[in-house]
Each structure stands twice: as C-alpha cells, then as structure tokens.
Amino acid sequence: MVKPTDIVNQFYQTWNTKDLDGMAAMLDDDVTYEGPLLSWNGKEEYIKGAKEILPMCGEVKVIKQYSDGNSVLSILDITLNSPDGPIICHTADQVEIHNGKLARTRAFYDPRKIAKYCSP
Fold first, then answer.
1. What pLDDT score was predicted for residue 61?
2. The total number of structural domains that make up the chain
3. In which region does residue 77 sit, left (phi positive, over 0), alpha (psi from -120 to 50) or beta (all else)?
4. Residues 6 or more apart whose Cβ sits within 8 Å of residue 92
5. Please, which of 30, 36, 42, 85 could form a disulfide with 111 given CB 3.0 to 4.6 Å?
6. Which residues pair with 33 in a beta bridge?
7. Is residue 46 part of a domain?
8. Does a structural domain hold residue 18?
C-alpha cells in the first residue's frame, strides 16, 4: 500500500519537473486548493491555475513532513523565479488524500514577497 506521504512527495516532484499530465493524474476530480493568494476548485481549474504559475516555480523542497492517517502536513521551501531574482517562499502545505489522490490542499505562507507576481 502506498503511503500518503509517498503520494504527496510524488506530487511535489510533478511540480519540480513541471509535469502537468502527471499532476492531473494525481488529482481527485473535485480537488480544492486554498492559499493566501489563489483558490482553485476542481481538477480542470487546478491544472489551468498550475499551468499559469508553473513558469515562475523553481524547486519545491520538503524540509519536514508529518502524517496523520490520510492527512499530510509538509513544511516546504519553494523557490520562485521572479523578474527580480529568486524568492524563497517558506510554506506549510496540508494535503488530504482520498482514494490515492489529492483531494484538498491548504497552503499557508506569507504572500507579501510574491503578491505582485501572482494574478488572482
């Protein structure tokens, strides 16, 4: 049986490799994403939003993870490639896994460093 942390880490790898097809395959049809700057509802909207911001994304690096059943909390450093140079976004990412797919993600970070580069 695949552990929820393995699923989440594989998903982060799809961000690192900018693999939209791999990302889509790992999302529940009714997936939700909630963050300080963006929210997406459903797989189609998630992939559309990811496609828009992937060019800005550098590396997603896992610092620490905690798991409780199908819930995974990851502490991440996400490198964003801005026109002004790289920005490290320290992030807490809480993911719920249902039937082996990402069903809900809530990201917590300070949006002040990146707000001017993200469109709502």
1. 98
2. 1
3. beta
4. 73, 74, 75, 76, 107, 108, 109
5. 36
6. 40, 105
7. yes
8. yes
